[in-house]
Amino acid sequence: MKISIAKEIEVCERRVALVPDTVSRLVKQGFEVFLESGAGERSFFSDADYEAAGAKIVNDSAKLWGEADILLKVSPPQIREDGISEIDSLKENAVLISFLNPLGNPEIAQKLAERKITAFAMEMIPRTTRAQSMDALSSQASIAGYKAVLIAGAALPKYFPMLTTAAGTIAPAKVFVMGAGVAGLQAIATARRLGSVVEAFDIRPAVKEEVQSLGAKFVEVKLKEETTAAGGYAKEISEASKQRTQELVTEHVKNADVVITTAQVPGRKAPLLVTKEMVSQMKPGAVIVDLAAEQGGNCECTEPGKDIIKDGVTIIGPINLPSSMPVHASQLYAKNLTSLMKLFTKENTLQLNFEDDIINAACITHGGEILSSRIKDALAALV
Asked: How many structural domains compose the chain?
């Protein structure tokens, strides 16, 4: 079975689907591994590193895609410079594993089904104990949460820790993290390591103990409706609950030196957490890092991919933060991919068992059909 590693053509994508260490393991298991020349360069893995691990280097992109039994990517398939769709480059019945954003862009599932591609979307891996080693959203979100704090620290015109000096005592920075999922928890831990005082907010009361275990104060809002969706994600709440939540967090945002927002709902616009009015009440020099920038932003002032200043507050809307740490991001993602492949490849053959909850959730197209009812609903909503 031929496993091919594609070179990413997305402008801001520096990650690679497999690293030499995971390639070596797959080769020892009897797989043939092919790498598009230069695929690992932006992650600081050379073609020579992959050749030493047992991979074969391919210079012809069309050949690599067309002959792959399993094609591995990071970003969703794109249109190449020659105008050819990467999806159209795959042979029928090939397997594609990648981030695909099928809920936000359901048309991609339709195209994959038309090409009779068996596609696994890494966003659709269920949040279960058994699937933890395959959970690419979590592995990459952890990197984003860590990097968000470093970005905030570089932009903040103050120290993070408390310092006692001959010239006097410096008070620690106050950091407010909104959303205590994987990214939020990593942001809390990183901000605490840097010596700041941390508060965190989440509409899910179940995360309170995790927040407190990291040394942060949990800001709790009691809502009458259910706030946790399937898989442990935060659920979209009613307008009345959103209003109540904003009223609660306004004072905490106002007093913070740094606000890091991480709230996202799969397939939907990010919930608004920080309004323009709240920004206007913040201290001059304060910093907001909005990790939901690509989904419209948790802050009303966020501009994706830009750093702006509004009322003396710096608002940063980073895009694809995991890609800014491509070495470790690629290592973690490669582990996620190989763990998933282990589930449905036996003796170097494809064996899909749709009774398995992970395969059933992550495999979005097979045999010319879209398998996910959520994606079908998203497609129907576009009509």
From this structure: 2
